[in-house]
Amino acid sequence: NPRANATILTLAGGTGLGDGFFILANSFMERYSFICFNYPLGFTDNESLSDAIAGLIKHLKAKDVYLWGQSYGGLIAQITAKRHPEAVTGLILTSTASLSNNIGFSGMKCLVGMISEEKEKKNIRTSKMLPMPLLPALMDAAFKRHLKNDPAALNVVRGMLEHVRKDMTNEYFAHMDHLLGDLRNHIGTHKKEDLAYLDGKVLIIEPDDDNTFTPDIKDALIEIMPSPTVVRDISGGHLAMLFNTEKYIGIINNFMDAQCLD
Questions:
Q1: For residues 182 and 216, is the Cβ–Cβ distance under 8 A?
Q2: Most CB contacts within 10 A, which of 15, 101, 188, 254?
Q3: How many other CB atoms sit within 10 Å of the CB of residue 68?
Q4: Distance (Å, rounded) from C-alpha 97 to C-alpha 78?
Q5: Region for residue 84 given its phi and psi (left: phi exceeds 0; alpha: psi -120 to 50; beta: otherwise)
Q6: What is the C-alpha separation between 219 and 45, in angstroms, rounded?
Q7: 220 close to 102: Cβ distance less than 8 angstroms
Q8: Among 102, 45, 98, 89, CA closest to 255
Q9: Torsion angle, alpha carbons of 176, 68, 218, 16, to 10
Q10: What is the pLDDT along the chain (262 residues), one digit of tens a residue?
Q11: Full DSSP string of 57-118
C-alpha cells in the first residue's frame, strides 16, 4: 500500500499456513502494507528462518514493520526481533509464549512437554501418517462447533480453510514439527535488554480463556517486553483471532493508531 505508513508482517502458528491470515487482510490492507506467507520448506531451523524473514523485509524495502506472530509465530517473531533489530519496528504477539530466561518451573515444564525431542519425534510420526484428505473435514467440524451461533464467521473461516487446503501435506506438517522442536535451542535464552529497543511498541493479546500456556509463561512474556500494551479481556481461546475477529481487528487497529509513525 503506497499510502500506508506501516507494514504488518504476519507469522502463523504451528500449522505454518500463513495464508489463513487473509481472512483479516481486507480489514488491514487499506491501512497498512501487508506481508503474509507460509513458512518455506527450505529453512529447517528457527535461526535460518528468522534470518530469511529479515532478508525479505529488507528486500521489499518495507518500512515500520510490525511482526504479528500467533502462537508459534509469536516465538519466531521474538527470535527475529532479537537477531534483527534493524528490520523490526514493533511486535504484535497473540496467544503465544515467551523465550525469557525468567520462566517459572511450571512454565518450563509446560514448554518442555510441548517441544521435547521425544514429543518432536512423535509429532513427526503422526504428521507423516495423517490422512490429509480427511483433515479439512475434521477441521470444518471443529469450527462448526465453535461458531454454531455465528454463521457469518463460520463462512469466513470455511473460506480460509478452502484457501489453505492445497498446502496441507504430510511433508509440510512434519517440517513444522521440526521447527517447533528446534525451539528447544531458544528456551530461556532471551533477556529483557535484548528487546529494550521496542519500548512502547509491543502489543500482547493473551485471552483469559486460552489455557495453552501456563500463567507464568504469560507473565514472563509481559515482563520481558518493554512497556507493552496488554489485552486479556477477549474471548475465543487460542483461536480468538478466528472466533472473535472483529474485536481482534479493533484491538490491533487501536494499538497501531497509537504508535508514532511518520
A1: no
A2: 15
A3: 27
A4: 10
A5: beta
A6: 27
A7: yes
A8: 89
A9: -10
A10: 888 889 999 999 998 888 767 667 777 878 899 999 999 999 999 999 999 999 999 999 999 999 999 999 999 999 999 999 999 999 999 999 999 999 999 999 999 999 999 999 999 999 999 888 888 788 888 778 877 887 877 787 787 777 788 888 999 999 999 999 999 999 999 999 999 999 999 999 999 999 999 999 999 999 999 999 999 999 988 888 888 888 999 999 999 999 977 6
A11: HHHHT--SEEEEEETHHHHHHHHHHHH-GGG-SEEEEES----BS---HHHHHHHHHHH-HH
Helix axes 151-164, 135-146, angle to 10 degrees: 160
* CA–CA dist 84, 193 (Å, integer): 14
Q: Which three cell numbers stand for residue 16?
A: 505454518
Of 153, 160, 123, 199, residue with least CA distance to 21: 160
* Contacting residues for 126 by C-beta, under 8 A, at least 6 apart: none
Q: How far apart are CA 110 and CA 238, in angstroms?
A: 16
What does the block give as the cell for 134? 480427511
How many residues make up the chain in this entry? 262
**Who contacts 12 (Cβ-Cβ below 8 Å, separation ≥6)?**
18, 20, 21, 38, 39, 70, 72, 73
